[in-house]
């Protein structure tokens, strides 16, 4: 049922115009008043409804109220307003009341005007249901916005608490000016200043490390995934500087982490750690159960992780090798020889990527293993036979194990043996094709076909 009144539908006229004041224009006036609003009530001096006119969708059974007191046709909370309008205290003012009807109560805004000298009045009403529906929708939208705002404020409070309580020094910089926007308690303690907001981060570093830090922050702000760099603070303490860029409300910011370097580490150890962090090949350390203990930035990038922390404690088998095959082979070689070299396998990214890699591994402690991963270009094996380079030895065929299905390796083996036999027959017959075909048990046409397939015609000028 559509409760929205139709402002264009015809109005029902008053049915008892004989009760109206006499005059030549009584009928015309009655028609005019009935058309002004959605509802029109003729009220006598005693406050009784004498006649009703208006839109059928707005009347909603009010015709049955004729003869009753108007004040008895509204809800109790609206009676005082009716009394004010009948007493003339609300003359010329629109008052909203809740009108009772067949389908339940509904809001109506009335304007009461005197009609004649005998105390009769005309009440012109406007159906407010459409406005009430819009108001209710507006209220629901407002409540939804307030709930979303409260949820956002609660999430902001949680993340701010996490930012402030983390033991790792963290800074938020403005991407354009490189000035500190916010700093947690650990960063304030490390830099020895509780009022870091507004200061430039490079001013907290030794002069010799400022230019590398500016270049590093500029690259991070441009979206380049940079490996951490080692810098010294103004007091001489060494830290690792790492950063990520993010955007908020159209403005770029840098989330910078200051990793405190071990004070007792020697310069050689620092140089080695820096080299591992900066090397283009992926490097990862795993424990006895092959859970990842540490990984350099190249490893984080190749497995599509957000940070090294996301990889820690994750099983190495989740990202490296075909399940149940490659890691078992590598660990078997480590157990027998202590090292594994150039094992062809794959690395699987956390976001679904897949790359072919060569893995070398070594035991670096009683319960630690080190792995290096180098991405290799995919080898083209499925080109047409005339353009394809074939394996030349059994050793080359064995290198295909793990890289190709067995049926493809068998096909390669058959082609290798066939080619070697043809080459041996041609050498034995001094490149005489007819004799070579005879000792091979082939027709000359079949031999010519195989020569073309193996690419022996273009490189060999053979005579019959």
Automatic annotation (TrEMBL):
Signal peptide, first to last residue: none
This protein's source sits in the domain of life called Bacteria
Q: Which GO molecular function terms does the record list?
A: sequence-specific DNA binding
- List the InterPro entries hit by this protein, alphabetically: Homeodomain-like_sf, HTH_Fis, PAS, PAS-like_dom_sf, Tscrpt_reg_PpsR-CrtJ
Q: Which positions fall inside the PAS domain?
A: 157-222, 270-339
Q: What Pfam family does this protein match (any one)?
A: HTH_8
Name it. Answer: Transcriptional regulator PpsR
- The organism named in the record is Sphingomonas changnyeongensis
